[in-house]
Design brief:
With 363 residues, the protein is mostly helical. Helices cover 44% and strands 2% of the residues. It has a two-stranded antiparallel sheet. Helix 4 runs parallel beside helix 7, helix 11 packs antiparallel against helix 12 and helix 13 packs parallel to helix 15. It starts with 6 loop residues before the first helix and ends in a 26-residue tail after the last helix.
Length: 363
């Protein structure tokens, strides 16, 4: 999937495609006071040569050495992906610190949007709030004081009575299972009490009968169609929250949909065309499998097989467009490193073997 059309792209921007382009390229808000950002300690002392090569490509692709530029200008969601990827590898701590400084300065624009684009004052997007809180935590920062914001407090305020982390925007509520999963992960990693059970329960309302998770919450009359992206991210949230049986079902779905070469296809494959591996989808699926205790050797082998000489990876290497893409490569970094969002950075959550005596049933 391309960054602009993928569900993760919508989580990154915190808005749907109907929202004005200015929000996608939002700049620094006047009230975003940078917090102290120092060079974080790397998660590991070593990582694979493929990971280091990919990290070097990501660093070379950054605009001004600290952020990603997308189709519509600076892309804060993709820049957050870079921070997560670099935090999972060693060798680039100074660049990671610089990227964190950029995110710190632009935090308000990312989670609140830009009133100059037509957004209301006081808007707040659930996906970016949870994602940025997770970035702060894995980078060794305080998510309750990042970018002049209490991201944990804001995330809690966005949770409705039914447990859904919902957008508060003039343009509507486009929150989805990916943003819900980021919120759960942020609270599990960033607070002593973890995520409320209601938040986990609401995520489970999106689980399809086959165990996978779709890119959007269910609507009447709409078929539940899982994606590797949403399922991989939701699986991490379920493992972190101790929801073993739903996690077991999600893990089974991913294993059943992994291709022989280790890759996963995205959820928007044209039925008239042959399915091809998608690096973004493969990376997010791998993170879920890692969190669930599964080997991802075949995933790493696949990613290495499609890595370009410059260290980067294309989004769909077999589609004909083999140009390296910073968005895809940043997400592949976590999979190359063999890490998940549970274990990157300080105070990790140590995943336990899933214990579920139930067979896969409807959720």
């Amino acid at each position: 999937m391309s960054p602009q059309h993928s569900p993760r792209g919508r989580v990154s921007a915190g808005i749907a495609m109907t929202v004005t382009l200015a929000l996608l390229s939002a700049g620094c808000s006047a009230d975003a006071t940078p917090s102290s950002v120092t060079t974080p300690s790397p998660t590991t002392t070593t990582s694979s040569p493929n990971a280091q090569h990919a990290a070097a490509y990501v660093v070379s692709a950054l605009k001004d050495g600290d952020h990603v530029v997308g189709k519509f200008g600076p892309d804060l969601g993709q820049t957050a992906d870079v921070a997560l990827g670099l935090a999972a590898t060693s060798g680039q701590p100074a660049v990671l610190a610089t990227v964190l400084t950029y995110l710190d300065m632009h935090a308000a624009a990312y989670v609140h949007g830009d009133p100059a684009s037509g957004e209301k004052v006081g808007a707040n997007y659930a996906g970016p709030t949870g994602k940025l809180a997770l970035v702060a935590k894995v980078a060794g920062k305080n998510p309750s004081a990042f970018g002049g914001l209490d991201l944990i407090g804001e995330l809690r305020a966005l949770m409705k009575a039914d447990g859904r982390f919902s957008d508060d925007s003039k343009f509507g509520d486009y929150s989805n299972p990916l943003g819900q999963s980021f919120g759960i992960l942020a609270l599990e990693r960033g607070t002593p009490e973890g995520a409320p059970q209601a938040a986990v329960d609401f995520l489970l309302t999106a689980q399809c009968t086959d165990g996978g998770f779709p890119d959007a919450f269910p609507k009447a009359g709409v078929k539940c169609s899982p994606s590797p992206d949403a399922t991989g991210l939701a699986l991490q949230a379920l493992v972190a929250a101790g929801a073993d049986c739903p996690a077991t079902q999600a893990r089974a779905w991913l294993k059943a949909h992994q291709r022989a070469d280790g890759s996963f296809t995205d959820s928007a494959v044209d039925p008239a065309k042959p399915a091809v591996g998608n690096v973004n989808s493969t990376a997010y699926a791998a993170l879920g499998l890692i969190a669930a205790g599964e080997s991802t050797t075949t995933v790493a082998d696949y990613l290495a097989s499609v890595q370009s000489s410059d260290g980067g990876l294309a989004i769909k290497p077999a589609s004909g467009d083999k140009k390296s893409n910073v968005y895809a490569t940043a997400q592949a970094l976590d999979a190359f490193a063999g890490s998940s969002f549970l274990t990157i950075g300080p105070s990790p959550i140590t995943p336990k073997a899933l214990a579920c005596s139930q067979t896969a049933t409807s959720t």
